[in-house]
């Protein structure tokens, strides 16, 4: 939960010994701190300046702390540095692969990180499809052979193909039978 805490009801749970319940007696700042022995004291937040952060922290509102302004600055610095480092790595890897960076189409060079990830994922899937078609284009059945012979046989339909994947730290072989699309 992120947002204002005013009006939220909950329980004050004693976890640390230094938590106290402070009661102000007058406008001059006189108060008494009470040790909390109650194990699950129900309370209601009435403070307009109370705010939840990242689902786990209750603190002052962002305006009081200046949090939003700092977060925005931090994100801007992060994004700028990330883009610069990404570009330098891209140039260096292009050079290592013998690719002239200046000849790479601007449409790729100008993509955001998210667009590049999406494009890379699309390329990966497309290459996978082409490789599957090449490797498995003639396969028409899958058989599992055990110590007593055939334990499983599956014939493919005309519009099906097989793919496989190693999972669980290469301890599981999964075979996928999918339709051509």
Outline the secondary-structure elements.
Elements: E1 3-4, E2 9-13, E3 20-24, E4 31-35, E5 40-44, E6 50-53, E7 57-60, H1 62-65, H2 67-96, H3 106-109, H4 113-136, E8 141-146, E9 149-155, E10 160-167, E11 172-179
Antiparallel strand pairs: 1-6, 2-5, 3-4, 6-7, 8-9, 10-11
Give the overall average pLDDT.
Answer: 79
Compute the CA-based radius of gyration: 30 Å
Q: Numbering strands along the chain, what is their spatial order in the largest sheet?
A: 1-6-7
Report the biggest beta sheet as strand number plus sense, adding barrel if it closes.
3 strands, antiparallel
N-to-C span: 42 Å
Low-pLDDT parts are: none
Number of helices: 4
Percentage beta strand:
25-35%
Shape: elongated
**Total number of β-strand segments?**
11
Q: Provide the succession of SSEs.
A: EEEEEEEHHHHEEEE
Helix content: 25-40%
Structural class: alpha+beta
What does this structure look like?
- With 181 residues, the chain is of the alpha+beta class.
- It contains four helices and eleven strands, in the order βββββββααααββββ.
- The chain has helices spanning 62-65, 67-96, 106-109, 113-136, and strands at residues 3-4, 9-13, 20-24, 31-35, 40-44, 50-53, 57-60, 141-146, 149-155, 160-167, 172-179.
- The strands form five sheets. A three-stranded antiparallel beta sheet has the order 1-6-7. Strands 2-5 form a two-stranded antiparallel ribbon.
- The chain is elongated and about 90 Å long.
């Amino acid at each position: 939960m992120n947002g204002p805490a005013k009006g939220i009801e909950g329980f004050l749970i004693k976890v640390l010994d230094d938590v106290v319940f402070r009661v102000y007696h007058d406008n001059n700042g006189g108060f008494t701190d009470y040790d909390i022995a109650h194990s699950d004291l129900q309370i209601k937040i009435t403070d307009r300046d109370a705010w939840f952060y990242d689902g786990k922290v209750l603190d002052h509102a962002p305006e009081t702390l200046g949090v939003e302004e700092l977060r925005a600055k931090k994100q801007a610095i992060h994004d700028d540095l990330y883009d610069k480092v990404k570009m330098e790595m891209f140039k260096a890897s292009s050079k290592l692969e013998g690719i002239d960076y200046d000849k790479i189409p601007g449409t790729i060079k100008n993509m955001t990180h998210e667009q590049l990830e999406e494009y890379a994922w699309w390329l990966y899937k497309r290459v996978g499809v082409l490789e599957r078609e090449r490797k498995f284009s003639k396969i028409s059945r899958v058989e599992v052979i055990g110590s007593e012979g055939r334990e499983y046989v599956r014939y493919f339909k005309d519009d099906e193909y097989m793919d496989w994947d190693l999972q669980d730290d290469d301890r599981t072989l999964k075979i996928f039978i999918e339709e051509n699309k």
